[in-house]
Amino acid sequence: MPIPERLNPPFAPAGATTVDRLGEARKRLIIALDVPDAASAAALVDRLEDTCQWFKVGLELFVAAGPAVLEPLLKRGHSVFLDLKFNDIPNTVAGAVRSAAALGARMMTVHASGGPAMLAAARTALEGLADPPQLLAVTVLTSMDAAQVDAVGLKRSPAEQVELLAQMGMEAGIRGFVCSPQEVASLRKITGPAGVLVIPGIRPAGATVGDQKRVATPAQALRLGASYLVVGRPITQATDPAEAADAILREMAGALEG
Length: 258
Description:
With 258 residues, the chain is α/β, with parallel strands linked by helices. Helices cover 44% and strands 15% of the residues.
């Protein structure tokens, strides 16, 4: 499945102005609405309305508010990344992917660990749609370090497991992946320039890491080859979320200049 141009934004051209680079950064920043209810999400979106194009709806918000939580975001012209990390038998995941696409999500996730048959079923479920969302395979969660990977019985490093799952995903026809900043460069070599790499675990310098293990700054992730950055708590838990988002966008714009 080819990557739609709108989901694979190029780096800013040489000589681009600061305004151009900030506009490009806004296309690449996804703000995670990891909040407990629709009212909290709406309040955040109000404060961040002019800051970004993309919002992520994950398990916490989706379970609390249901599919209807996407409607106000779409009506306001935002793009939605539905991050539910489907992982089940192939037939069930295929049905879930079709249902998610019908909701209007522009990107969605499945777990690469579900195996090649499940990934192929998810990809096939989107065939024939006129404007399909980008399907992303989650490799290894950014909360997992070497000890966590070992605890689930995997005798590989997180980086080795990420590469194995990405190669498997490519063979199943997947061209978008979620990985930590530490694996961006290696996955970019696997996917080539057309691959869509969506990167959580983004922490500005000096920010609290929290439960994340494999992290990087926004500038570092972009310079390594990230397509999109997912940022949650450093923005949503800031005293002034819009100001925090603006600072991240300016750091991203500086990286895009290079």
